[in-house]
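Risk register update: the risk of archive-format incompatibility is retired. Evidence:
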Amino acid sequence: MLRANAKKKNFDYEKGEATLISPNEISINKRSVEKKIMADNIILATGSKPRKLSNIPVNEKIIFTSDGIETLEEFPKSIVIVGAGVIGCEYATIFSNFGKTKVYIIDKAERILPFEDEDLVNVVANNFENNNVHIHKNASLVRMEIKNGEVEYELKYINGSSEILHVEKALLAIGREPNTKNLGLENVGIKTDERGFIIDTDTQTNIPNIYAVGDITPHISLVNVAEREGRHAIVKMFGPPIKNLDYKNISTIMFLNPEVAAVGMNEQECNEKKIPIRVAKIDYSCIPRAIAMRKTTGFFKLIVTDDDEMKILGMRAVGEHASSAIQAVALLIYMNKGIAELGHMLHPHPSIIEGIQECARMLLGKPIFKSSIYKDKLKCYRCFDGVCTPLDTISN
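Archived output:
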């Protein structure tokens, strides 16, 4: 008989390798001992792991993934990073900022961070050049081998030339893949896409009582997104009906130098989707707080619909305090609002976020600064299908 003050046990923890047997049954293998449990609902949250290439001998001692690189005990004299996405660029920033490692980045495209707008990428690339980072542009990795305790790699460029280089260490940063191996997805018929990610509809798989959250799904791989998906799945199981998750207003940070923050769509994405837009952009050198901090490298860029409502589609911030400046815009995107609220709010002075307000004022035709004076610092234009034309709102 339970004591009157005994707490009801509602959580059990089991450590082992789990496999789905049926939509309601899981097998847990722990040191060759099998235990089966039943459940009305199941959440799959097994995360992801660094993607590897079969022809590159990753040993986490000389050639690393983003998991193994954390075991380094001292700075190498040189390192080559395969991959010019977020992870690769963040580690290039880390190593180059300490000034003890010569950094090389292998980029098969013309520019790093190919999913972002060119103006943003140029700021990051210029900083890399200033920090003595060498970017192998338009380069294909022919081979990478460990020789005499170091790394030898061969590149072939788009112009037909090739070269062989030697560095102390290498980092493979070519994305991540879902941890779905041996989960038993095939036992219950859970659908996956061509890359192995579990296909879900608002966290639910095609098996209604089985949910998938985090990096195991094809959505953006961020800790805060996974946490939000997990909470959402629990509410769907046991709570009242709720509206679907909206991924349009997710705020992201790239830990670069200067830092980069983003929410919503960028110009490149709008162009690909043929969405008519208006854009306002202000250089950090026009923001009093940035001037006071002597941190004038960067810009704010606000992207809105090309109509009278001017609803916010996205924003990009590059520079000091960028990550702290985007949440208000994320909220307005979530609320499907225009820029009038931003333009009329009293922003604290001096603060970095005054730059966002000035972008809104430019689009509303009520800016403080005039483009006729600050021609290289202020831009306001409309774009459709890759063709951009200046707006008259800041011409006076």
